[in-house]
Model the fold of this input.
Amino acid sequence: MLIVKKFGGSSVANRERIFNVARRCIEDYKAGNDVVVVLSAMGDTTDELIEMAHSINPHPPKREMDMLLAVGEQMSVAYMGMAMDSLGIPAISLNAFQVKMRTNSSYGSAKLKRIDTERIRNELEMRKIVIITGFQGINKMEDLTTLGRGGSDTTAVALAAALHADACEIYTDVDGVYTADPRIVPNARKLPEISYSEMLEMASLGAKVLHNRSVELAKKYGVQLVVRSSLNTNEGTVVKEAARMERMIVSGVASDKNVARISVMGVENEPGVAFKVFNSLAKKNINVDIILQSVGREGTKDIAFTVAKDDLDAAIEVIKEDMKIFTAKGYEVETGVAKVSIVGAGMTTHPGVAAKMFGALSAGGINIKMISTSEIRITVVVDENEADRAVRLIHDAFDLAD
Amino acid sequence: MLIVKKFGGSSVANRERIFNVARRCIEDYKAGNDVVVVLSAMGDTTDELIEMAHSINPHPPKREMDMLLAVGEQMSVAYMGMAMDSLGIPAISLNAFQVKMRTNSSYGSAKLKRIDTERIRNELEMRKIVIITGFQGINKMEDLTTLGRGGSDTTAVALAAALHADACEIYTDVDGVYTADPRIVPNARKLPEISYSEMLEMASLGAKVLHNRSVELAKKYGVQLVVRSSLNTNEGTVVKEAARMERMIVSGVASDKNVARISVMGVENEPGVAFKVFNSLAKKNINVDIILQSVGREGTKDIAFTVAKDDLDAAIEVIKEDMKIFTAKGYEVETGVAKVSIVGAGMTTHPGVAAKMFGALSAGGINIKMISTSEIRITVVVDENEADRAVRLIHDAFDLAD
Done:
């Protein structure tokens, strides 16, 4: 079997953890498998590099930033190679140049294009464990690029696809995907499996186990993922095609407090106004989430939407600037809100799911500010300080506990 | 003019020094020159990487060690690129992969084979300062290699040769080559120029301004070097072909306290015995310096030689092991010795130089234990605690002071 195993920065943060990872990989190797390991930069390495860079140049050129950050994973893989050698196992570390991890040229958020697997296959054939730098690539100029958030997960999935791996294991500090955040719902249950689509909805809703890009890539290439903990040997959660599993009506409840609501008031009731608002925001790379349009006074309308709190300042700037283009009379901002969602691939075929969710909130006296739905998700916006209670009420209503 | 400028690790050890180097390079750039900068790893970076590596594996695989150490220079060049950008100057950092700095596969002490200058020339043509990682290369497997001690000097010289640079400036923490170590001889004089051969003799005798490999390479390709300080703007010392300069009878006095003497006693007076001794040492990569063979008792002979103190333990081991092969009766070790040498390209054509040197030592009551000469060098071994005084006496005798 060919297994791709990815470990994040906290899993290789120090000598002990490096050996812990090495031993886990060696177990699979000794069982006769081909093992490819993808690593992120150790613990705080990336933060330290960024800090020094910013002390030199508050706005460092992105190309130089990627040149700098790429050293983080190179250190991790070299140390891992040394650790495996000291445990008597042949291993070799490879960086983005050596595996020709081709990307486009979007420094800091590059997209993987293709991987040359020849070197990896040669090393595996020599019965070596192959340790590969996550997060980084090279563009057509042979300049280093980095993949941005969740980059190492994406590297692992891309490698698993390119190598036709039999398994792709993503190790994190939780041991799988739960029906809800166990810190909010203590009796939340670990899901044995979840579909790509559900995982995507969960991730975008604050259950930050896997980055969306890696899940999308896994879905595209049919790479079956296992999310599991690097700290224990518990069975993880399998992320795979929904067709192969029994569709859960509701797989989980997720919440996201990184939310702000902006309302643009009194825009003229004409076609194309909403387009103008969201086009202006899109141009500045601001992701808009839930959108609500309502009838305002005197034939005008109000457009409300949510953005991530990190994007709020930028969004406000856009709104202020283009106020006239929008024909808007004013705007309001609300930051004390949160999204609470249920996700389930079987939702479409089971009516009454939304009613049950809203009923649970109503019984708990929680006011719903906005509603948004997709085929496999229902999201409501509530007061931020009621979000955790909302999650627990819904979790109970759908009987998701252990 | 195309100028290659090399700065060592202490010159880029922190933010302030990085900017200091950036400004010096920009001066040349603004004067209309093409500027290529070669950098070592910052300050203690390499030591820190080695320490962590050894904590993981006391004998890390050399290939993985080079993979690890190469990050040091990559950090330096990226930071330098950011510093130049913040000063408004277009710059680009390039690593060993990007300039195809080809070496053989001797990890840890690789030899440069060729450099692809196309990328560098393209970037220079776009009027960028090009910042290149010293010390590192890639072999035919595309694995990273490092050049060993003095590696970044060698990189700079090789680049200057490949680019047909008009100047190659090696910045250090001293402002040139002196007639003697100014810490020992306060009125030592800075030499405006010195020949490659003299520089080689000086370097091997403890005047560690330039590493021999870089001087040898410069000599081979006729690259004129300038050694100068990164801390001030004083004129440095030019290292060039002797033919072009007036030959100094004696250019300088150097001493080396990293010396131990080993005597192998009572070996049979047969052909080939000396060969056996030095062959055994050579096999273990132990450099033997001064050799003295004398007649011993009862038709046997004694062979004495000096080695670097660092090699002493290894040398003793060899001698012990092969005692019988050498037909030796015993051995003696003396560590409290030092080499003192005079170097000068004009020495060969001026008789009486040795006599003057020995006379100065004799007048000072300093006993000479061994003597060795080359065409442009005379070396004596004296008591270690008399070495500094010997240097001063000789320096005076040849009137080398300011």
Notes: Residues 2-172 of chain A form a domain with the Carbamate kinase fold (CATH 3.40.1160.10). The two ends of chain A are 33 Å apart (CA to CA).
